[in-house]
Amino acid sequence: MPSKFTYERIDKNKALLLVVDHQIGLYQMARDQNAIVMKSNILAHAELGKIFNLPTILTTSAETGPNGPLPDEIIALHPDAPFIRRNGEVNAWDNAEFQAAVKATGRTQVILAGITTDVCTAFLALSLLDAGYTVFAHSDASGTFDTKTAREANDRMRAAGVQVLSLFAVACELMRDWRSTPGTKEMLPYFDKYLPEYGALARGHDAALKNGIPSGL
Amino acid sequence: MPSKFTYERIDKNKALLLVVDHQIGLYQMARDQNAIVMKSNILAHAELGKIFNLPTILTTSAETGPNGPLPDEIIALHPDAPFIRRNGEVNAWDNAEFQAAVKATGRTQVILAGITTDVCTAFLALSLLDAGYTVFAHSDASGTFDTKTAREANDRMRAAGVQVLSLFAVACELMRDWRSTPGTKEMLPYFDKYLPEYGALARGHDAALKNGIPSGL
Amino acid sequence: MPSKFTYERIDKNKALLLVVDHQIGLYQMARDQNAIVMKSNILAHAELGKIFNLPTILTTSAETGPNGPLPDEIIALHPDAPFIRRNGEVNAWDNAEFQAAVKATGRTQVILAGITTDVCTAFLALSLLDAGYTVFAHSDASGTFDTKTAREANDRMRAAGVQVLSLFAVACELMRDWRSTPGTKEMLPYFDKYLPEYGALARGHDAALKNGIPSGL
Amino acid sequence: MPSKFTYERIDKNKALLLVVDHQIGLYQMARDQNAIVMKSNILAHAELGKIFNLPTILTTSAETGPNGPLPDEIIALHPDAPFIRRNGEVNAWDNAEFQAAVKATGRTQVILAGITTDVCTAFLALSLLDAGYTVFAHSDASGTFDTKTAREANDRMRAAGVQVLSLFAVACELMRDWRSTPGTKEMLPYFDKYLPEYGALARGHDAALKNGIPSGL
Amino acid sequence: MPSKFTYERIDKNKALLLVVDHQIGLYQMARDQNAIVMKSNILAHAELGKIFNLPTILTTSAETGPNGPLPDEIIALHPDAPFIRRNGEVNAWDNAEFQAAVKATGRTQVILAGITTDVCTAFLALSLLDAGYTVFAHSDASGTFDTKTAREANDRMRAAGVQVLSLFAVACELMRDWRSTPGTKEMLPYFDKYLPEYGALARGHDAALKNGIPSGL
Amino acid sequence: MPSKFTYERIDKNKALLLVVDHQIGLYQMARDQNAIVMKSNILAHAELGKIFNLPTILTTSAETGPNGPLPDEIIALHPDAPFIRRNGEVNAWDNAEFQAAVKATGRTQVILAGITTDVCTAFLALSLLDAGYTVFAHSDASGTFDTKTAREANDRMRAAGVQVLSLFAVACELMRDWRSTPGTKEMLPYFDKYLPEYGALARGHDAALKNGIPSGL
Amino acid sequence: MPSKFTYERIDKNKALLLVVDHQIGLYQMARDQNAIVMKSNILAHAELGKIFNLPTILTTSAETGPNGPLPDEIIALHPDAPFIRRNGEVNAWDNAEFQAAVKATGRTQVILAGITTDVCTAFLALSLLDAGYTVFAHSDASGTFDTKTAREANDRMRAAGVQVLSLFAVACELMRDWRSTPGTKEMLPYFDKYLPEYGALARGHDAALKNGIPSGL
Amino acid sequence: MPSKFTYERIDKNKALLLVVDHQIGLYQMARDQNAIVMKSNILAHAELGKIFNLPTILTTSAETGPNGPLPDEIIALHPDAPFIRRNGEVNAWDNAEFQAAVKATGRTQVILAGITTDVCTAFLALSLLDAGYTVFAHSDASGTFDTKTAREANDRMRAAGVQVLSLFAVACELMRDWRSTPGTKEMLPYFDKYLPEYGALARGHDAALKNGIPSGL
User: Fold this and answer.
1) DSSP code at position F70
2) Average pLDDT in chain A
3) Are residues G89 and G161 in the same domain?
């Protein structure tokens, strides 16, 4: 335990979003989460860049091979983002173009997720940490062969100093206050889409206001 | 599969409630469910008799020994119910006084739960079935050593023709219509106590009506 | 085991689709599946009626109370379907209007799903069976408090003669042949949306055809 | 591993209790624990303040919206506690009134729990740690979307130096000696209510003393 | 569901006990239960024959090969029991000597357990059923490769009409009344050994009687 | 429970083996088992035909599309088997060529496995049952989206009268006696490959014979 | 990660064994492990002191109350060990007599286990660490309410610097070499009793040597 | 958290591979993973040395006793590797010959796996760390009694500074770039064998290129 802990929160003005190897072939390897959930989380990850106006970088590994391309939905969200198609490097940091793109943003915090967690996410996260970045691994949007591998990959990153966070935590740490911009107006529809139990709570609340009658409790 | 299925529902005018060996010592054996849940379900079971005004019979096995007495809360709910303290018979049906008490009610449907599921509930359920009763095993209020044993005991009963039901199913099949008596007025507080996620839904709905403002979604 | 088994398949010309109490309040009770998956399955269920042009009936229970309305997405899919808003009956079959709507379709097979599985789905399924229908419970689109309750509710239905099927099984038993209408053209986009691991398989295949290069294996 | 570990125990004269966003709407999001258990643990958390006479602060997030109010039971336990209703800040520490209330207690140890674990509990816990407090996260009374998220949130807090404790550990570390005040007299009924397996142990013991006969073992 | 169910209980005067391939090599294959539990259950199974004075037959499969011999503890319990060492037949019923030994007992009910559940137990159970016996599979004392295989093997037997029972259910159905012989005197030490949570209940009860003081609750 | 059960065992002279849609694309959908295990079981299934000299039929669904071809290993095992490449029919029984191939074998028992369990295996199994075959679903070699779907598909088949068996049970019911042909000589290497814990038992036994020294126990 | 790690192994000449509150009442609270396993592990823990001739100290909490006495088996193993019966202190270190007994041994390493893990084991482990001892928590012999609580308690101890070890690791780290005393002669029977899968391995090996014949593989 | 993290990757020119006690007897103890998976991972581990041309050392513990020899497959892969047969030392580092063999390689990074994880892997890993090596525990190729023991052993190693990695992570960190040697040509067949879901992805991709037609999506 450190004698003194400093809480460095994600700051939308300092943070960069990385979409790492969320390719449709590799997606078949991501079995630590239900496939519907995994896809929803991948799209939610990419959309964070849009809503919080974060510099976003896309990268893929050998996308003309079995790993396949990124889902069209992600490319449609970020048509103008730097997109580095690696042809050999497993660790994206080993690709000079990718490294340059990251550095060009001038950001000091990195939010990332990828498939697989133990390779694509972890290798890059550790390299970024080594390079001096504060690293936030968005764990819901990373996937790998099984839950044991996911847990051990996250443990490895955490032991090195990476912050491992859920979708809700990343989004709320970015937003900070429901009265901000983006705030309620942008984030409620986002949660309605990607955390539907929260969306249903809001829908039910509004339905009660519109034409509800007392429950009788 | 029967060529013709007849759905015999629980009828509050035909049903009898049995509280079987829900003793505080035996309660320690019930590990297929969390202990807090198990206790809640045991009390919910006993309270069904109260709310639906069902003839209710209590029985225990060797209660001055390690099995211990029934929880005071159950006795307080049914101070006047027939209470058969068995001193040796494992299967309550083997106790003449118990059998007489059941027959005296004139009921043809039996709702029962007990600890342990594989012995106290299952043996009695099978004897009742053999004796011609329609038997409803309230599975949430039965407990046993582990989930495997619970599942196999329920499978055994089901194969013989016992209906195995959840708390919510027993309660709703008894109520049938929220406009009945008992209906909303009696059952919402009951669900608020024993199915608190449903209670919270009603509380949240009423809170919205009282002083809610639109969510902004 | 029956001496002779007859396999009655779902037939798109004989089948009726029932959407039972898929309300946004009750949705909070459905915890045997991940919430994202549950929502996806509910929408997939409703969309089956659209794609296979099945007579579809919607019903809700006390929707101005805590149970809340159906999701807008479902209503938008079936704007002209009979929609029976029950005010008290737990078992939809007890509602004369609902029963009339079902009978009016002239269909003999019923595909249904609802929340909760043990009450809304099971009670209705058993009544339909009793009334002579062949009943198909689409289990992926039913939800309840926990996995134990879901399993026991499905076991109860199965013991009575209900067919309990997954989304993929319901859809494929309706389609039968990829060369039919609806067939590949309608069903691949449907699976891409609701079984994304299957969609990704098709996407990856098509990407390989478009600009793939050999893997080197 | 630190070369020298100092064990700072919870001290009832130094500790402050925080009840964070235990709201009835947010409660629907807490699915890493059974809903009955979650509710029991939330009430157990609030009652710790009462029994150990700890300064207690209540806070909610946008309680007129979907998140809803605190359960009446909690408010009834702490009618005079500072109660900060936040209208936008996700992290309670960002609310000046809340921060002032915490500081006004003069306490140096904080026991907290909230919904959701990864946002409401973790963000505040990390801010408190940063501000120099010793932080005890009562994990049984925090809830979130699923067990993976709960575990990762607790791992994040632990890595920063937060102590993550069960209900039994918090209560026993506060009590220290059964002969204290509060001690057996206050804590046995508390455990009987919130850890019923322990309560049943005491009930069974007392029943044996009252009218037990040897088991025959 | 049968129109009329007859509950045939295990009767200690009609029952026969079979110990099937509980060999120390095969024991390594039994991974659906913890190894300590598996061993305890195997010994508990064999000891049932001793306590209830049931005709008991031991059999092994190719015991000089990798399957290995029975544990010495079992042989010591039944030094004079018929012991059929099969050299090839997988299904013990295919061995004439074994079949003769079973028939020689004149019993009509068979309690059996073996390793593996899906082969040694299931094949023999189905053959016994076919031969007209009432068959009770003691599931806690059968083991196999994994829980899925165990469940499916038990499901297969149950569908054919085998009764699948836990250790506690077998023992209690044999005993029927704690006042019988064997009864409390024989069975409490048995449960203390093989169901230690029940034994601890009795020990704790007796300790309270001996020198307990009130809990203070 | 049937009043009289007849145990129809798999007979190598009556049985037919079906390899159904074990295609490399569909294999990605099979997530109810670990991928390594799934592949091993698929190959074990195909090899049964070889070892027991069973008439074997291969079939695929739209293999030039995303479902992909059968693994080369399977085709290499059965170069001369009838191989029906279906272009549209989901249920192989709907394909006239396939149906003819099955009938041409003159066999009355069918052992089958496929991907997915709920569609490819279950639909065909039910059709075969309807057509009068005795059907054995080899559950270890069928795969589907998740364990819940697998369990429900097997339950559906079992309720109709299909025998659901593990790899070990299928192989042993075919072999019957270790002294047969095929027997020890053929089956030990088979188990060494596909049930390696059993293979290791034999290897360890032989190693002890070769150069072991007493353990000292 | 520490810049330099020193591996301090358990040394039988430096180590002390503590048996903490392994009482038969508290044993009912230990539900994170199967009850049979828990009892076996508790006895294995106590027997370590015997085999390795470690100074051993027993302690209980309020043993005339519901917590009950230690199992007779443990007392029989250590009739002459210091036995501190605490009447109020939850943390044994707060009891002067216990602290003195520990110090009197002159040992610097402590192996401990207790019920519950989060209170009896963890509190004492942290106090011992604070007092300068090297602490080894034998996790298999500690038990608590559920697996989540066990994991969090072990995480708390580990974060502070406690070594959390399995039974096999504690025993092997004490033994170090099978040729030592105690070594094979003492430890094989010990493992045969407490890790029966290892015992069966030795038994099978010896059986092969005695009268085995080649497997035929 | 370290103020500065340095990411030391596995370097094929600095790394040494250790195969520790992967013996066929001990293999029966490895139950935290499916037996088929465990065997596959053990062979994958040994083959890493072959593909990456890493100095490899084999060691066994008392291989003429119950632990048994290494699988023939491993010895065949490394016929010329140093092979240290320990006769007593549990921790391989305590064996002078083994220690000399390790030092003789001149390597500074060690990749190891063994059975059991908590003893054979962990003890050696901690000794290597103490001796100044950077240690990579390949967790997929270590096995032990159950998942709890595996997790705790890995946690113990991680807390000391060991890197705990999956098979995919070890292989990819060694390879670094698919264009290296070894690269695609060597590693795709390796993954096809040991991570068959990845192999199937490549097979499906190549099949599409060879004779695929568009899916129709």
Assistant:
1) P
2) 97
3) yes
